[in-house]
Amino acid sequence: MNIIKHLESTRSEYIESFRKFLRQPSVSAKGVGIRECARLLKDIMDEWGIDAEVLPTDGNPVVYATVESKKSEKTLLVYSHYDVQPPEPLEEWISQPFEAKTVEGKIIARGAADAKGNILAFLKAVESYLKTEGEPPVNVKFLFEGEEEIGSPHLPSFVESHRDMLSADGVVCWDGGLHPSGRPSISLGVKGMLYVELRCRGARTDLHSSQAPIIVNPAWRVVWALNTIKPPGGRIAVKGWYDDVRSPTEEELKLLSEIPFEEEILKKELGVEEFLDGVKGLEALKRLVYEPTANIAGISSGYTGVGSKTVLPCEAMAKIDFRLVVDQDPYRLLKLLRKHLDERGFKDVEIVELGTLLPSRTPPSAPIAQATMKASEKVYGAKPVVYPNSAGSGPDFVFTKILGLHSVWTGCSPPLAKAHAPNEFNTVEHMVKGVLYAAEIMENFRGL
Amino acid sequence: MNIIKHLESTRSEYIESFRKFLRQPSVSAKGVGIRECARLLKDIMDEWGIDAEVLPTDGNPVVYATVESKKSEKTLLVYSHYDVQPPEPLEEWISQPFEAKTVEGKIIARGAADAKGNILAFLKAVESYLKTEGEPPVNVKFLFEGEEEIGSPHLPSFVESHRDMLSADGVVCWDGGLHPSGRPSISLGVKGMLYVELRCRGARTDLHSSQAPIIVNPAWRVVWALNTIKPPGGRIAVKGWYDDVRSPTEEELKLLSEIPFEEEILKKELGVEEFLDGVKGLEALKRLVYEPTANIAGISSGYTGVGSKTVLPCEAMAKIDFRLVVDQDPYRLLKLLRKHLDERGFKDVEIVELGTLLPSRTPPSAPIAQATMKASEKVYGAKPVVYPNSAGSGPDFVFTKILGLHSVWTGCSPPLAKAHAPNEFNTVEHMVKGVLYAAEIMENFRGL
Q1: Which chain A positions have a beta carbon within 8 Å of B303's beta carbon?
Q2: Considering CB atoms only, which of B209, B223, B291 is closest to A226?
Q3: Does B137 contact chain A (CB < 8 Å)?
Q4: Contacts of A316 in chain B (CB under 8 A)
């Protein structure tokens, strides 16, 4: 294979470009270094023969490029993100988070795995084809956004208004890594999300709690409202919430049963003796993949310091993230939630919508899914770990629902690469394997 | 009356001593100036002919004195406190909180009303008798503590171990002031208190909320536990909680119906349109005086900043203050609460006891109650506003239950004197009236 030779001969330049990319902070949560990073990414792409543009959105810019191929009429859309999580807590890093220092064979940096390593691996695969064969196996479009770590708030409108530019035959969401077993991980979709804040107000100010017999306590109101939304037992009690939840297909259940799920290791890592309701094995996995959730992400009211203070709070707040499974619709559910609270006497509890994402799913038989699975076996010598959808959420619906394409989530980061945590890392070995994985995905996609 | 003449001739020295007392900070919450203030109080008492001692407790010292009288075999125990609330927020004071400056006829200082003004008024009354008649109308014992503003944690053990020293025929808890109507306010008791913190833990650390289908969320556990303790409707659902609650007597109900309750002004001040459950008038007042409460004073879990963060919290906490009415017992109720949570499957919810106070009540017919009511009419020319007990709590049980005495709560601070708030004040007029009120209480108590 020509590209392996090319890759070997340009290995050190490749890793140097990677370090340069890592040394440019791009923290979307704080608006730090975003535009500089988009510009740097464009420069690297241009240098590698991939003509890129920095395009505006209503938020942070996207970096976009097309690479044409005469080998195929097929077009692969590759999505990823150049923004990174905040590096805090800084004191836990063994080297500076934007220094990209190599420590014991690991390149340590915020973004090393999530997703700057991924981005440069796919770009390097295309560059290798350009240098050795003149063109990649398929037409490729790159779409790198700068807001993934803050929930992709402007991606849907950007994709809506650039449908033609983004037309393709399949999508690789290239933002992930290897399963702890060392096998690639492929998710055929994501959960959706409805994120709300419940708010309630009482008196003008916090009062002495001797007033409790006659003055409303908004903390009780929020507690009672929450309890009606999800009573003990854990099933969401909002009428109609489960209407659109469909059962897993035989094919999906088969995929599920093939996922290695090391529950004892997981329990130990998380510090719990049992999973919720004592579920085990496949049952626990099924919940992770198929269960809609109502999670209290935060709750606050009154005095929360040490010791006792007899205060009757004047306001209370709870944040809930509802994860949604196919085919739940966050906008419909938001209306059902309002109706639910109204009918139970909680008109005083305000619902503030803080975020929505549609759930999304691609069938395992989709060409891009098959192409990725085959590439995994070829490059890593092992079947991938395939999830019908991930337990987490993401902007997958912009590809499946807005563009109407099939999409998979995969990537080449090392197992347990500490994405979002201190000492995030990548290795040269994984970067190189990633280039081959990307190349093989393109090769396979051409033939499917 | 001799003492009026004496009071007029020593008026400026009296107010100077008061200012000196105010200028000595004594913030028990921060441990600032406590010992210096106890010493200063003793010095003032000594100077006025009232031999005082500074006695140790397991916390801040008490200042104690006895003044004997040949006129009567009766002994009146006068309780108050020399510690004050923290002065914060400092920027809202129109003069320095420990400067004791006179602004538009008001002496502005932290403690001016609560309770340094009260203390000096009663001392001045006794001093006036000593100077004019050689002795007060009854034997007097003074007990001034230095921890009232932090919940009197060491007063019960001090009183337990000084029963003989504190023997008396009645108690005036001299720590209060005039009703907004200008009439003295007398409370014949207080509510008790059980202050607890509910705590629950889940995983080792906060997790990504995609784990919600299989990992326990302690915020839900605490919400569900709270809901079982007090479901919507507001009645406490812990079995046996109301067992010892007794109905108001005819006498008490009569007192209640005589209390001026300006509910529209109160609602406006608190910024609420309605009282809880739409109660009005006497019904609202009855609740304030007779209803046990379960108040969420604070609740906290997970991410509570702005915007959305999908976190599965690893811990949750709620603070509840339960106010208790006669004859509820906080220790018995604590056990009932534990049993309640255990029986409902909340063994994982820890209960941390943060404070207990027994409820306490003195009958209106008690001699000290009658003496105080009569003194009010004589000095202020108006019937006092008499509460069967206050809606708040205090260490009254050390007198009624440990010493077995009758006790009333009253005082001479101006109406709306801003105790616990910025610009707390007193006036010379109220200080002088207070001396006469104290004198008249002693006179009346001798005859009853």
Answers
A1: 297-298, 319
A2: B223
A3: no
A4: 299
Beta bridge partners of B192: B324
CB contact under 8 A, B312 and A297: yes
Q: Quick one: average pLDDT of A71-85?
A: 97
The whole-angstrom distance between A317's CA and the closest CA on chain B is 8
CATH 3.40.630.10 spans which residues of chain A?
2-190+360-446
SS3 at position A130: helix
Q: Which residues of A touch B353 (CB under 8 A)?
A: none
| Residue pair A362/A188 in contact by the 8 Å Cβ criterion | yes
- Check whether domain B2-190+360-447 has CATH 3.40.50.300, yes or no: no
Residue A203 sits at the chain B interface (C-beta within 8 Å): yes
**Close Cβ partners of B299 (under 8 Å, ≥ 6 residues apart):** A219, A223, A299, A300, A301, A302, A304, A316, B222, B226, B316, B317, B318, B319
> Cβ contacts of residue A178 below 8 Å, gap of 6+?
A184, A185, A380, A412, A413, A414, A415, A430
The reply to whether B284 touches chain A by the CB within 8 Å rule is yes
Query: Are residues A319 and B300, on separate chains, in Cβ contact within 8 Å?
Result: no
What is the distance in angstroms between the Cα of B119 and the nearest Cα belonging to chain A?
24
pLDDT digits 0-9 by tens, A123-168: 999 999 999 999 999 999 999 999 999 889 999 999 999 999 999 9
Min Cα distance A272 → chain B (Å) is: 5
Query: Which chain B residues have a beta carbon less than 8 Å from that of A223?
Result: 223, 226-227, 296, 299
Measured between CA atoms, the residue of chain A closest to residue B202 is A272
pLDDT bin (cut points 50, 70, 90) of residue A376 is: very high
Which segments of chain B belong to CATH 3.40.630.10?
Answer: 2-190+360-447
ipTM of the prediction? 0.92
- Sign of the CA dihedral with B232 first, then B233, B234, and B235 last: negative
Rounded to a whole number of angstroms, the distance from the CA of A223 to the nearest CA of chain B is 6
Q: Which amino acid is at A332?
A: R
Label residue A269 by pLDDT band (50, 70, 90): confident
Share of chain A above pLDDT 70, in %: 100
In chain B, residues under CATH classification 3.30.70.360 are 192-245+292-357
DSSP β-bridge partners for residue A200: A316
Probe site for chain B from A88, A152, A214, A267 (most B CB atoms < 10 A) = A214
DSSP conformational letter for B446:
H
Over the stretch B238-278, which tens digit does the pLDDT of each residue have? 999 999 999 888 888 898 999 998 899 889 988 999 999 99
> What does the mean pLDDT of chain B come to?
96
Domain A2-190+360-446 of CATH type 3.40.630.10: yes
Tokens for B282, please give them. Answer: 């006497």
Measured in whole angstroms, how far is the alpha carbon of residue A378 from the centre of its chain? 26
Instruction: Check CB contact under 8 Å for A271 and B203.
Output: yes
- Beta-strand ranges (E) seen in A165-229 are 170-174, 185-187, 189-190, 192-201, 207-208
Q: Under the phi-then-psi rule, with left for phi > 0, alpha for psi from -120 to 50, and beta for the rest, what region is B431? A: alpha
Nearest alpha carbon to residue B53 among B42, B68, B41: B42
- The whole-number pLDDT of residue A1 equals 58
C-alpha B51/C-alpha B83 separation (Å) is 20
Determine the residue type at B92: E
- CATH class, A192-245+292-357 region: alpha beta
Q: Does A54 touch chain B (CB under 8 A)?
A: no
A393 touches chain B (CB under 8 A): yes
Q: What are phi and psi of B94, to 5 degrees?
A: -85, -15
